[in-house]
Amino acid sequence: MILFYSEDINPRIDYIARLIFTQILGIEVTFTSNSSRFQKYDQPKINYSYEKFGDEFYIKPHRLLYCKALINPDFKSVWVDGEKYFFESSEDSDLPFDLFAASFYLVTRHEEYLERERGKYKRYPAEKSVLSKYGLLKKPVVNIWARLLAQKLQKKFPELFFPEPRFRFYSTIDIDNAWAYLHKGFWRSAGAIAKSAVKGEAAEARKRFGVLAGSQPDPYDTYEYLDNVFKGNEDKVLFFFLLGDYARYDKNVPFKNKHFRNLIKQISNKYTVGIHPSFSSSKKKGKKKLAKEIQRLEQITGKKAEKSRQHFLRLKMPVTYKRLLKNGISEDYTMGYSSHSGFRAGICTPYYFYDLKKERETKLRIMPFQVMDVTLRNYMQLSPEEAKKEIMDLMQEVKNVGGTFISIWHNETLNDLESWKGYREVFEEMNKTGFTWANEKPAS
Asked: Which of 29, 200, 302, 337 is most buried, taking the most CB atoms under 10 A from its CB?
């Protein structure tokens, strides 16, 4: 138990202090705005105010956590022992920066509310983020800062005990297109064959004919392979299904197709499944589409849909999360970048969405991911060996702070064909290591 003092225990302070102490460090925190009570308290405590009383653990606050207006805050970077921090504190503080304000700024995605420039598909550009500008995108800085705070507090209060954090691992699969050629319907298949003929893509046409004739497997049918990789660790796997109507960016098999429905049922019997809200549902007029897609998944599986990840990672703050909440979603796995691997919100611990417009914590749990197959191969142009190293470096960062590592792969990228040749081995090594680390028994 630690006592946290501030002149004003507002929703922002309450939220971020509980995130740091309870959710990341695993200890309880209580609050007081009574200075007399705080000064008399003889147990571990922290003073987060503009007045220092004595030799208590002290951090002078940045004004961000006391500000209600949604504006870009002024803050400076601070170099200490070769490490870069931001949201400077004061010389008489026990930390040179305000980790509560800095962490709040990152996890709430404050900067995304205010950024007008959007990249392709109207996504927030990673390059605009403070972590990218400071070269910290590959570090779970919020977790690292929390561990730093714990070390400093233990020096001052030796009786303070922080439980050893445990590494967790989730392998997640997005089903954007269940099959490359099968079960698309006569007219769609015929149109695709005609298109290949017009473009002079004879090899593509032959491949399609071969699959439809049953003489060769569909290249996206990697489900048996996935079962073998995941065997014995099904509780650490999630599948997300795209069930939107056919559109330019939503080209899955029709949700009414019996083969597709059977596939979803089979997978939902073994693994946790969630909705993959369509590109169309994330548009301004897509509110009703989201509800319809969730209803489709629930009707097929016979289970309540509680988890989601946006197709194309289309995430707009706070609109996307508000829509998910309104439709009964309790966990979302979209927090990450398509163009960069790393830590979009600077954190590798699941946490609850704080609505800056309403100034309140919500019941939507955000599950940040660190790496995606398409990011490694298409955006970063990494070879399989380079991709292995990238993943292992990130996974080690997460393990160092006892966080949760989450990856995104697609059934279609695991066929070990053409440009994806060699990436199966990357996938297998990542899962083998992740499952092994997650299954390790904590030290007694």
From this structure: 337
Pairing of strands 57-58, 77-80: unpaired
Q: Which two tokens stand for residue 341?
A: 């691997």
> What's the pTM?
0.95
d(CA 21, CA 99): 12
Tokens of 284: 């301004």
Q: Supply the DSSP symbol for 250.
A: B
Q: Is 102 exposed, middle or buried (0-12, 13-18, 19+ CB in 10 A)?
A: buried
Going from N- to C-terminal start, the domains of the chain cover 2-156, 168-180+218-439
Q: Are 37 and 9 in contact (CB under 8 A)?
A: no
H helices then E strands: how many in the chain? 15, 15
Looking from the CA of 328 toward its CB, the CA atoms found within 13 Å total 13
pLDDT digits (tens, 9 = 90+) for 290-313: 999 999 999 999 999 999 999 999
Three-state SS for 173?
A: strand
Do residues 260 and 254 lie in contact, with contact meaning Cβ atoms separated by under 8 Å? yes
Judged on CB neighbours under 10 Å (0-12, 13-18, 19+), 273 is buried
Distance CA 366, CA 335 (A): 7
